[in-house]
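Good morning,

Attaching, inline, the backbone tokens for the sequence recovery test we're adding to the shared suite. The designed sequence is right after.
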């Protein structure tokens, strides 16, 4: 199983030209860095507005940049999809899973802590988003993680269990479909964009807990890859990569500098 290294660009960069330049740099650097290694699976998640331009560069680079024979194509994801409809509808400001798929995305983030915080997304809405993703054939990267208050008072596991009840309303058929295209990203909210990271032991313990909870409560999801996210950078990536419990990383800030992002991908390549 390949590890995942996923760049979540959030609301960056400022212009389409910069987005094109960033994806070009990632493609060039990756092709060079990966020559001697079995490359991890890389995914980029730009804003909706830059999706088309980034997809075009990725498609071009697959055919023009010399790729090592071990390289998987770079995948494309979106940061959010509409909870209301999988295709079209009167939902001002929304973009659907089907529209993202049409532009070349094959994955969507669901439940990133910034969406939970600033858009008050709750489990009912996140469950709808998972359903929309499934019906448009988009894979789901479900983000979970505790706040600093949860961490301080020892309620991390309880928070995660509550967040994972997002699966409770899915049918057996939907769960089977989801099991083929689900990644879970454990992202402690207090580690996102702060430069603070939990110790590897803490991450291993939480990933082990998530895994055993899946086995007990959602057995069809027991093989789900569990990624870590929160202040991952080119200096700490190798430590996370050394753990059998960490199946990859979701990277924010460091994914905006091609050289740093590619060093992280290199750490997860074998
Ligand atoms: P960060 O963000 O790497 O900047 O901490 C991670 C994320 O929000 O996914």
């Amino acid at each position: 199983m390949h590890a995942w290294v996923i760049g979540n660009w959030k609301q960056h960069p400022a212009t389409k030209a910069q987005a094109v330049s960033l994806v070009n740099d990632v493609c060039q650097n990756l092709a060079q860095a990966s020559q001697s290694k079995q490359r991890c699976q890389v995914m980029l998640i730009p804003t909706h507005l830059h999706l088309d331009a980034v997809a075009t560069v990725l498609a071009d680079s697959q055919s023009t940049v010399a790729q090592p024979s071990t390289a998987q194509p770079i995948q494309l994801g979106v940061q959010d999809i509409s909870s209301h409809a999988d295709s079209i509808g009167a939902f001002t400001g929304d973009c659907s899973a089907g529209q993202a798929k049409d532009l070349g995305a094959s994955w969507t983030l669901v439940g990133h802590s910034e969406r939970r915080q600033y858009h008050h997304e709750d489990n009912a809405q996140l469950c709808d988003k998972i359903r929309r993703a499934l019906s448009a054939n988009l894979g789901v990267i479900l983000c979970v993680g505790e706040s600093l208050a949860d961490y301080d008072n020892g309620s991390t596991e309880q928070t995660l269990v509550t967040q994972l009840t997002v699966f409770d309303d899915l049918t057996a058929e939907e769960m089977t479909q989801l099991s083929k295209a689900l990644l879970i990203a454990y992202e402690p909210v207090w580690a996102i964009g702060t430069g603070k990271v939990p110790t590897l032991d803490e991450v291993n313990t939480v990933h082990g807990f998530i895994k055993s909870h899946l086995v007990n409560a959602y057995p069809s999801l027991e093989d789900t890859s569990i990624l870590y996210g929160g202040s991952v950078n080119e200096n700490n990536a190798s430590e996370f990569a050394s753990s059998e419990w960490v199946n990859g990383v979701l990277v924010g800030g460091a994914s905006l500098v091609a050289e740093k992002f590619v060093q992280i991908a290199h750490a997860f390549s074998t």
